[in-house]
Amino acid sequence: MAPPWVQELHFPHLHIPITIDHMTPVIPSGPIPAAPGQTLYLSNLDDMIGARVFTPTVYFYSSHDQRPVMKTLHDALASVLVPYYPLSGRLREARNGKLEVFFGQEQGALLVEAHSEMALADLGDLKVPNPAWTPLIFRFPNEEPYKVLDMPLVIAQVTNFSCGGFSIGLRICHCICDGLGAMQFLTSWAATARAGTLITNPEPCWDREFFRPRNPPLVKFPHIEFMRIEDGSSLTMSLWQTKPVQKCYRMSREFQTLLKTLAQPKDNMSNVACSAFDAMAAHVWRSWVKALDVKPLNYELRLTFSANARNKLKNPPLKDGFYGNAVCLACVTSTVTKLVHGKLSEITHLVREARLGISEEYLRSTVDYVEVDRPRKLEFGGKLTITQWTRFPMYDSADFGWGRPIYAGPIDLTPTPQVCVFLPEAEADHPSGTMLVCICLPESATHSFTELLSLTHSGDPNHVDTIT
Predict the structure, then answer these.
(1) How far apart (Å, rounded) are the C-alpha atoms in residues 421 and 70?
(2) Is 429 a catalytic residue?
(3) Measured by CB atoms within 10 angstroms of the end CB, which terminus of the chain is less buried, N or C?
(4) Cβ atoms within 10 A of the Cβ of 437, count?
(5) Pairing of strands 166-173, 54-61
(6) What predicted TM-score, i.e. pTM, was given to this entire model?
């Protein structure tokens, strides 16, 4: 029997006791072009309120050879922090609350060594992100949520398991790197660990001045992605008043192809196809809102997602090796009624238009908007945010010399339950195109969401029995 096109993945509820053994600051191994007291400019894309976070990820390795893990990782990180020296600094607020990197007495990344009496086999399926893995990511005692000021900008925890395997729990400050930039840094660190000598390809480029605001600022778009709204729907309340649960689904390549076909408008006069992301984002958003039974029906909801703008920048282009934030937040709006009762092709069209609307001018307008009216808090009202990691070379980037990780990716979405992540599935050598969708819902909505997502809900006009 063929496996289902959409498969719900399960993870065990665990308690992972760990012991912290050592905490070691990692200082650049050579001179850097910054002296104590100096600062570096951060662009408004680096300093958007949504970037003021650490992105936590974990990487599992089944075993290691005779090379000492901590020394190998420490020495390679110290080497890589020379060309990536801004990651050895700290963040502080300058005038008007704007962030900058500064270099003072407290410097360097942080490398933590820990151990657990458990074996990797005790953790269950290591290919399904599990909130129980949270102890594998180091956080300071009593650390405030979203704290980025005066923090090491790279924090790595190595946890040794009784079987000889280990994990690397990594936190990188989003103000310094977007997803592609973080992959570039990780690739360099891993390659340096494998080779035993510094490898940077490409050479890292800071150049945050590339995104300085215009004088005077020129905001050409309404930027509804930053809109402050009073949440008058039941959506946010249903997520935050009951503890949401994290669900994960494996979406086969065949299902993604089917969904893309269903999402294509029948009267597509422009003959321009939607992308697989357009169709999947529209379908997940629609299924999520239906399962949550959002009221009132005339309330306007938002879907946001990050769009890489690197290839949009032509005049001039970004320099090779740039590892800062070069993304815009695309935004789709729809009333609950149109979202729930409208056609999948109509919602997909809205997603496609928002994605294609990200241009060089839109990015420049975003920079100027933040300069004029800097958002002070994260806006969750009536919103789902989708983060796409499927194009990141997460597994190839994280080979430190002990092979590709068993799993590479996030752990726990429940602290921000209005975030959904699209992940590549771990494959040994040949990617299958299978995608993992990780999302949060109240327990009461999970059964309905699973049926809607897999097109097996009896009320769905695209019911799988009618199209197979």
Answers:
(1) 30
(2) no
(3) N
(4) 21
(5) antiparallel
(6) 0.94
